[in-house]
Specification:
This protein is mostly helical and 107 residues long. It has one domain: Arc Repressor Mutant, subunit A. 63% of the residues lie in helices and 0% in strands. The protein contains six helices and no strands.
């Protein structure tokens, strides 16, 4: 659903046929966040999966609708604690560090 709405809260409310206000109430009740924050989280979860598969930071950034690779990298680092390139190196076993989560949740 998040992907079909292009990670846009306005498009998601139209897709679900609910008002933007109703969408805010539902996402706050279910996820304790705004619709856009939830969509951004979903986009970054998808990013980690796509990076493992596509192996290209640039392609993943543009596939997920980021206008700039630098913006994608910054958001990815805020979410996972390491850059997308470091994440790829870590998944390849080239780094001994484990990425940390910056949202306080356990892996």
């Amino acid at each position: 659903m998040a992907e079909r709405s292009s990670y846009s809260a306005a498009l998601l409310s139209k897709e679900l046929n609910v008002s933007p206000r109703q969408l805010r109430r539902r996402t706050h009740a279910n996820f304790q966040s705004s619709p856009q924050d939830w969509l951004n989280e979903q986009r970054l979860v998808q990013a980690s999966k796509m990076l493992k598969k596509l192996r290209s930071v640039k392609i993943v950034a543009f596939e997920l609708g980021f206008k700039q690779v630098s913006h994608f990298s910054r958001e990815f680092k805020l979410r996972y604690g390491i850059t997308p390139t470091a994440f790829l190196n870590w998944t390849d076993g080239q780094l001994d560090i484990c990425p940390k989560r910056t949202d306080g949740r356990a892996r």
